[in-house]
Amino acid sequence: MSPKQQRGEATVEQLLDAALRVYAESGEQGLTVAAVTKASGVSLGSLYHHFGSVDGLMNALLTRWLGRLLGELLAALEHTRTAHTGIRALVRAYLNFVQEHRDAALLLHSAYADRHSMADGRRLRDAQEARVSPLAQWAGRYVDAGDLAPLPVPLLESLILGPVVAVARRWLSGVDDVDLDQAAVLLPERIWRAVAGDG
């Protein structure tokens, strides 16, 4: 990689990191070009050169952190041998990610992310297909074996991760009646009852 490419990558990282900090501190309303350039120390021209707009920057930030979350979920599955232990690992990995990367989790569970996924869901799904496919393959393998209920994979995903996402959103909203460590212990068994097959 040439020095110019290295500088470009460093600038991209600075802008993405600054955008997440600004979002965490000021929310969507505070996320302006001026705020991001001030927080990053990067020029307005560089922001536009790399991302085209604040929306382009935010879309890249969402894609980056969604990729990291999916990567952690897949890594958690690698160490499991059954559908039951896989569900436990997925729940724990998701909730650990939320605790360890609170600012990124706030963005991933935000109204901004919801609007983005509704408006551009197919492109976002296609961009993450390489990472999502192993999750689908994992679920499909256990459906075929009879360990998971014979449901379409998107429905299984909703049954497995839907409750986890709801708990994460509640915790991220500042409601203090949710204990993520407790949820990581209790949720897997409840989810398992909903998705277990007859095998």
Automatic annotation (TrEMBL):
Region forming the signal peptide: none
Domain HTH tetR-type: 9-69
UniProt entry tagged with the keyword DNA-binding: yes
Keyword list, A-Z: DNA-binding
Annotated DNA-binding residue span(s): 32-51
Protein origin, superkingdom: Bacteria
Gene3D superfamilies, alphabetized: Tetracycline Repressor, domain 2 (1.10.357.10)
Protein name: TetR family transcriptional regulator
Native source species: Streptomyces incarnatus
